[in-house]
Amino acid sequence: MVKMLISSLTLVVLSLSAVTAQNTPIVVSDYPTPNEIPPTNTPQVLEWLKEIGDLSGAPNIPLHTGNPPSCPNPPIKDECYWTCDGCAADDITACAAANTWGLTFDDGPSTATPTLLNFLKTEKLSATFFLIGSNVIQYPDTVKRELAEGHHLASHTWSHHALTTLTNEQIVAEMKWTEKAVLAATGLKLKYMRPPYGDINNRVRFVLKKMGYIPVDWTGDQFDTNDWKMPSITEAAVIATFTKSLDTYVAGNKTQGFYCLEHDLNNNTVSAAQKLIPLGLARKINIANVAVCQSDATPYQAGGTAPMPAVSGLTPSPSAPAGAKATGSTSGNVSQPTIAGKSSGAESTAVSKGLFSAVAALAVIGAIFA
Ligand SMILES: [Zn+2]
């Protein structure tokens, strides 16, 4: 087997497993009912609310209804509602490294996750897993394996409800119970999160920021793989559509990377992932997790660091520090189709216009394939 080096990078796998994790056994009965919005009047949540402090400064935006909700009509002034108006505020919407696919998987862990981990191990790739807390307490060993195999962990809430429909206190409960579960499984306090359905507005952002969380959306509709629509749509359709997105990206200036939406939700989505990733590798697109994309050597609020490998071929940019964010401008001018509209399903899609003006970052995982 001849091994090819992509982008003349030495193979680097993030040593996230090098963290000094302190595991404690997870007792399921200590946690809220899985897949339900946790109550906010329990001693534990009240303690968290006290720690977090005053939330009264949150923008006074009415709660939406539905899961995911419909877009308000008329729009609410200054809401900055990503799924409806494409407004991302300071959310991260694109991988800050040039020519790089920010590889992320949402909704796990599930029984399909180990198959995906086997594949990523073979391909020597590292992803960010946006974990659902309810699933973490069911499959803590899978989360431990993700960490041990060099992946980056992040939050996707406790019950996968649309956050703009929840009260500030419910958002706290959703995030903190997930945080507690992952902390128990791995010793790591999560720092990055992806809102379910991409459903986020300025009120949600305010509450997330109070807890130290950085939202990571995805780079527009064209990077929603639509894997979550299977089996309503075929795998062939998923592959065909995403191939076009990749080709459009490759034809552009590639000064910044992208985040796509994929899921380790079930066998269908994991099967699709194993066919989509080689499409990126074949186009010599680097593949990296969020920590690497954002050059964040401390991708957890506590408990661990991610050593950042030096990478040739990319110029570190002081203007794109860790947590680099989209600006909502289009100064990056990546030639990608902008598809308006909104879907409903496992994740709604959104138009993300935010593009970085600066070439960012450094570390990229070198992908080797046979
Ligand atoms: Zn999701």
TrEMBL record:
Polar residues bias (residue ranges): 327-338
Region of interest (Disordered), ranges: 309-343
CC per GO annotation: membrane
Chain ranges of the NodB homology domain: 99-290
Record's keyword terms, sorted: Hydrolase, Metal-binding, Signal
Leader sequence residues: 1-21
GO BP terms, alphabetized: carbohydrate metabolic process; fungal-type cell wall biogenesis
Family matches, as InterPro entries: Glyco_hydro/deAcase_b/a-brl, NODB_dom, Polysacc_deacetylase_ArnD
Superkingdom of the organism of origin: Eukaryota
Pfam families (UniProt xref): Polysacc_deac_1
GO terms of molecular function: chitin deacetylase activity; metal ion binding
Protein name as it appears in the record: Peptidoglycan-N-acetylglucosamine deacetylase
Source species of the chain: Entomortierella parvispora
